[in-house]
Amino acid sequence: MFTGIVEELGEVTAVETLDDACRFRLRGPVVTQGAKHGDSIAVNGVCLTVVDHEGDEFTADVMAETLNRSSLGALKAGSRVNLERPMAVGGRLGGHIVQGHVDGTGEILERKPSEHWEIVKISLPADLTRYVVEKGSITVDGISLTVVDAGPDHFTVSLIPTTLDLTTLGHKQPGDPVNLEVDVIAKYVERMLGDRAQGAGR
Question: In the predicted model, is pLDDT for residue 103 greater than 90?
């Protein structure tokens, strides 16, 4: 489990294309401290497994399903990525519960800078709209954010200077894709209420 608090802005150093997958080599001096084979690291919000680790770099294999459902397929050598290690038991839940299981992708639609923050408008797939509410939580490229406005096909978030400086959202422009993970609690509530309604119908 992750919290959506990005630990560092890493970099893709190499991409190896396989028959039905990709192998990424990524640099992250912070997240590779103590890393070993089999550990999990979130890359732009996608939970990946460490295959090899050497120095401040690690490799991770990404299967076709993940490439198709996330924006990782657009990464290339030199791409910047948000990196986060799983939360340790007993650690602080600084953001919200993040699984690292991307629900879909959105697109940066608009950026509105102001003196102390920036409003970013992001498209929202139709099948995720029901899970996004004003002042609720959403994960964008692995970043735990609060929804400012929830529209029928988009939402907005307000980014503070720290988020702009230390994550990919400080660099992405309109047209760029982002990974989205909605609040898993909303999905569980929906499932439970649906099961209850079906039971009442029987």
Answer: yes
Element (H, E) at 195: helix 184-201
Q: What is the token pair recorded at 101? A: 């299981």
Please give the Cα distance from 14 to 104 (Å, whole number).
25
**Which residues are registered as beta bridge partners of 58?**
26, 53
The pLDDT, as a whole number, for residue 155 is 97
Is the alpha carbon torsion for 164, 167, 170, 175 positive or negative? negative
Residue 68 is which amino acid? N
- Residue 175 burial (10 A CB sphere; 0-12, 13-18, 19+): exposed
On whether the CB atoms of residues 156 and 119 are closer than 8 A, the answer is yes
Tens of pLDDT along 130-173? 999 999 999 999 999 999 999 999 999 999 999 999 999 999 99
For the chain, the first-to-last Cα distance in angstroms comes to 36
CA distance 202 to 186: 25
Distance CA 201, CA 199 (A): 5
Can you give the pTM of this predicted structure?
0.90
Helices (H), 53-172: 64-69, 161-166
Q: Which amino acid is at 192?
A: M
Residue 197, pLDDT > 70, answer: no
